[in-house]
């Protein structure tokens, strides 16, 4: 699980940080129309490995010790935070995850990453009445009619307003991914 780059360059000097109208060179393929756009769910990432063990995504700051059993995956050179996995049992989401497993009829042998969503996850932006697991590999395809800064901004904000959609993840045929979230865009003056 590598951290997915954001489609546009982020201005970390602004408060709150937001994206600017400059394409992240790693993600130029998105604006070239290469790849498939899917819904980005707003929850927390969990993984079922090939041994049947569940893991929770966890970021660890450089000045903090990693939790017991932590498996680091990558470190962000900008923030110095390490992204990795911790056993689900020690995650603050363990109870909600257990409920989600009971609520979802998992397909036998399906491993990979899932989004844990529900009433007690991130303030429930997905507006769910129960905790659920959404398989990332089965994310809903989206239509983004205009692949420009303004077109993507309009689409992602409309999706967020309609049903709490966090944003969009693009999947390139070669395995690369890129993302954008509604909150990545500077708030409009009212």
Overview in brief:
The protein has 190 residues and is of the alpha+beta class. Helices cover 15% and strands 31% of the residues.
Walk me through this protein's architecture:
With about 190 residues, the protein is an alpha+beta fold. The protein has two domains: about 1-40 and about 140-190, no CATH class; about 40-140, no CATH class. Helices cover about 15% and strands about 30% of the residues. It has three helices and eleven strands. The protein has helices at about 30, 95-105, 150-165, and strands at about 10, 20-25, 35-40, 45-50, 55-60, 70-75, 80-85, 110-115, 130-135, 165-170, 175-180. The model has no long low-confidence stretch (mean pLDDT about 90).
What are the secondary-structure elements, in order, as H or E?
EEHEEEEEHEEHEE
- Main sheet makeup: 6 strands, antiparallel
**Order of strands in the sheet with the most strands?**
6-7-5-4-8-9
Which strand-content bin applies to the residues?
Answer: 25-35%
Number of helices: 3
How far apart are the termini?
38 Å
**How many structural domains are formed by the residues?**
2
- Over the alpha carbons, how many angstroms does the gyration radius reach? 17 Å
Work out the number of β strands: 11
Spell out the key features of this protein.
190 residues; 3 helices; 31% strand; alpha+beta; 3-stranded antiparallel beta sheet; 2 domains
Describe the SSE topology.
Layout: E1 8-11, E2 18-23, H1 28-31, E3 36-40, E4 44-48, E5 54-60, E6 71-75, E7 82-87, H2 94-103, E8 112-117, E9 132-135, H3 149-163, E10 167-171, E11 177-181
Antiparallel strand pairs: 1-2, 3-10, 4-5, 4-8, 5-7, 6-7, 8-9, 10-11
